[in-house]
Structures are given as C-alpha cells and as structure tokens.
Amino acid sequence: MKYLEVENTNKRIDAYLSEKLEDTSRVAIQRLVANGKVLVNGKMVKPSYKVQEGDKIEVEEEIPVATSLKAQNIPLEIIYEDKDIIVVNKPKGMVVHPANGNPDGTLVNAIMAICKDSLSGIGGEIRPGIVHRLDKDTSGIIMIAKNDKAHINLSEQIKDHKVKKTYIALVRGMVKENEATINMPIGRSERDRKKMAVTKKGKEAITHFKVLERYDKYTLLQVNIETGRTHQIRVHLSQIGYPIVGDEVYSNGKNEWNVKGQCLHAKSLEFKHPITGKAMLLEANLPEYFETILKELEDRKRV
Fold first, then answer.
1. Is 135 a catalytic residue?
2. Cα angle at 264 between 263 and 267, to 5 degrees?
3. Among 135, 137, 148, 247, which one carries the catalytic annotation?
4. Where are the alpha helices (DSSP H) in the chain?
5. How does pLDDT run across 277-295, given as a tens digit for each residue?
6. How many domains does the chain have?
7. Alpha carbon distance 257, 253 (integer Å)
C-alpha cells in the first residue's frame, strides 16, 4: 500500500498518480482506479476525479499474477541484452504474441525461456514487455522490456515518436521518385474486415521512403514510419502501386522466387536506453532468403 498527501493541484487522479508513481503506467493506474484499488479520503473515485489540496490517497499496489503462457526453448538471434531490455532479430513466420491460431511457438514464448524471472508485469501479468510489434511475416529487429520501468519509458518514446524505425522493402515495379512521403489515413477495410486500407475514416499514417537500388521490374527501398498503424508500410506501398514482393494480402503474392510472406525487414532501431538514457543504434541483418534474392537481382544488372 502506498500513501500520498496532495499539495496544491487540481489534476485528474490518474494524471496525478502517473507523475507520482513513475514505475506504474498510466493504463495500470486507470485500471487500479476502476477496480477500486485507489481511495481518496477513504472513498473510491472515478478516473476523472480532480485531486484537491489535503486529499489523502491510498494506492493498493498491483501484484502481477503468473502468466498462463509457457516458456519454450526456441532459437533466437540476440542483438543486444542487459538487465533492462533485450533486442532480437525476429525471423519471418514467427508471431510476436500468442493468439487464436497461434497458441505457442511465438516470440513471447521464446523470450520467456531466455529471460526466465526477469519480466515486465505491465498488464497485470508477469510477461515479457512487448512494446511494439512486427507482422508475422515481417522479419527484423524488435525490442522487449524486462521490467516495468523500462516498459513505461520505451512505450513513451514510441508514443512521442522518439524511436526511429528503419525498414528495408523490396517492391514490384520501378519507383520513379528517389524519395517521397506517403500521408494517407489507414483504417479497417470496409470490404474485408481482416484487412487494413487507406480510408477517410482511418487514423493518420505517415510513411517516408527512399530508393536504395533499382532493378529490372523491382525496387529496393529504405522505409521510415512516423506512425505505427497496423500493416502501414504494406498498405501504403500497395496503395501507390508498388506492392511488396511476396505480400499475399495486399497484392496477388505471386513472385518468381515463390516467396511467401512480404520481403519486408525491420533493419534498425534508434532510441534512448530506457534507464541510462544512452543513445542506442541497433541493427539486424537481412535474412538469408532476402539476401539471395538481392544477389540474383544484382547479377542480372551485370549481364
């Protein structure tokens, strides 16, 4: 139990506690308030309650319960690891978090085996701190928080657009511009609810791309995103007529290499270490199949 006495403020209870309880996320605080775990002057309050000078606040700390997920010894390429974070190169075909149809064999199952007892408890469960995701068939770099303080800090950096994510994509077609920005809102498709689409009712989505190499019928792009909408890069590039090679959802998926799943790789992350504040630049090598395709395209240019 934590006890606080308010001095000179008129803030919402959740905002006030977010400032005072640095190791607890805003979402966790809202959950505590909603569940009656926060008392002001001995009484339950709503999240919108504004604290007043002299208020006495009691906060019953949330003890994360053990997750029902199982640790699995799945090989992973670890790019960086310390007591606060772990950064890995996720292979194409691996789902990040268990869900219907993918109950195990996921990144979370693998991370649980590596981290053992050093895991984030945000969300009410002891589990790896997944702060951002990659699609199942997008390979590349992804960071995970090992404790709540790191999780909260990394989540805030992402929210404030302070994490730079760089991707490599091989698309069909000869992209004419050397670089450009796509600013088109993305939301759930009205024709197919399983897909995302550019739609006026969607949320702002901004994608920047730069041509790295042009091949016969294909272009290699460097892509950076300001926003993190579901399938954003895939939807945006398909929308402007350059679908990603192998994307079976946003193009016909047919390609001469019979690659299943998009040739899209999360190449690097730039961020500040959530505890030390040190500037970090970490990179993940392209998967072998992607390198093989690029080598073949380079060989064709020399003929």
1. yes
2. 130
3. 135
4. 13-20, 26-34, 107-115, 148-159, 232-239, 288-302
5. 999 999 999 999 999 999 9
6. 3
7. 11
